[in-house]
Design the sequence.
């Protein structure tokens, strides 16, 4: 009974923590950013081309800065963020970890094209239908950077003979 009372006393806090209408956006954007940082570090160490290594370094730098901003904003909004990427992104990273050479580079670029398209879609959805004005402002500020990343990926894909659809 005592444990039940203790649990019930925490319920209002849990409800408050998830009361932000855009909490799912915050959490999704953070998970994406963390995945980009992890994959970027992998590209820096395993990439066989300088372009892939440089792109990986840019991902670490840009997404680290973006995630710091997002974490500060989420904390102010009482939205708890995970420090893990999604299971799908973890699986993609695990696949990349076993590859090497040109195959690693090509797989990394393909993965990044898909990941950036998904991240752009998440930001656009927030801009178009989000309810939290600060989350919408974050998404609007982050969108040009992700589009720039996608442009850089298009160039890398062309250099490696990877179709960019």
Sequence:
């Amino acid at each position: 009974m005592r444990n039940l009372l203790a649990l019930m006393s925490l319920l209002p806090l849990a409800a408050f923590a998830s009361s932000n209408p855009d909490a799912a956006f915050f959490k999704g954007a953070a998970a994406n950013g963390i995945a980009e940082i992890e994959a970027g570090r992998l590209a820096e160490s395993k990439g066989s081309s300088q372009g892939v290594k440089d792109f990986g370094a840019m991902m670490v730098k840009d997404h680290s800065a973006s995630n710091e901003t997002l974490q500060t904003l989420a904390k102010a909004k009482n939205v708890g963020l995970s420090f893990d990427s999604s299971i799908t992104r973890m699986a993609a990273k695990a696949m990349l970890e076993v590859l090497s050479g040109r195959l690693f580079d090509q797989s990394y670029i393909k993965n990044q094209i898909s990941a950036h398209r998904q991240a752009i879609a998440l930001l656009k959805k927030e801009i178009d239908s989000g309810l939290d004005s600060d989350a919408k402002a974050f998404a609007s500020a982050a969108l040009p950077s992700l589009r720039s990343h996608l442009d850089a990926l298009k160039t890398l894909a062309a250099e490696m003979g990877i179709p960019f659809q």
